[in-house]
Amino acid sequence: MTTPAATPAAPVVAIAYHSGFGHTAVLAEAVRDGAAAEGAAVHLVDVDGITDEGWALLDAADAIVFGSPTYMGTASGAFHVFAEATSKRWYGRAWQDKLAAGFTNSGSKSGDKLHTLQYFTVLAAQHGMHWVNLGLLPGWNASTASENDLNRLGFFLGAGAQTNSDEGPEGVHKADVATAEHLGRRVAGTAKRYAPAAAA
Ligand SMILES: Cc1cc2nc3c(=O)[nH]c(=O)nc-3n(C[C@H](O)[C@H](O)[C@H](O)COP(=O)(O)O)c2cc1C
């Protein structure tokens, strides 16, 4: 007698983000859409003034995607306040073995965004989380390439976006939005395979 194949539970992805002026929020929503398209239950958690309900959503997630604008070459002050407050989880190893990933947005093409993504990886490692990288080759790096390529800014650690300093949230580059969607799909797909709760 054959038993039906187990249907894995939908993975739960939480996006812990800050956005001072709404640009990074557009990317958070794109990560959400990508993860949802891959079958995840997704929660957007604005970490600026995070509530008990927000903390509970993060605690219950299989994967937490960190997102922040790059301010002065690192994550924003509000994100750092949140990161320091995660120390309570760190003491109890509450996030051990969850998946983690990250995205950032800034005004310059580079703007030292790599440092923000690296900061997220260290935060994740301190919590014993497993980092999910972007998983894309760099775009826009050949004579035949286009600025509309996925991963047009060529990051490997996570999704990097650039928004012109004189444009509002509607100016977030469509290729960067698509790259953030890709990250959401990748995190949800990885959670289906590896996250303890999703595989249970
Ligand atoms: C205090 C401050 C510091 C900034 N530092 C950087 C930086 O280091 N590199 C950069 O490229 N852009 C920098 N910017 C520009 C922001 O990253 C950019 O405006 C971004 O789109 C803001 O995203 P948000 O609307 O989600 O806050 C800075 C902006 C502010 C307000």
TrEMBL record:
Domain Flavodoxin-like intervals: 13-158
SUPFAM superfamilies: Flavoproteins (SSF52218)
InterPro entries: Flavodoxin/NO_synth, Flavoprotein-like_sf, FMN_Rdtase-like_dom
Organism domain of life: Bacteria
Pfam families on file: FMN_red
Name this polypeptide is given: Flavodoxin family protein
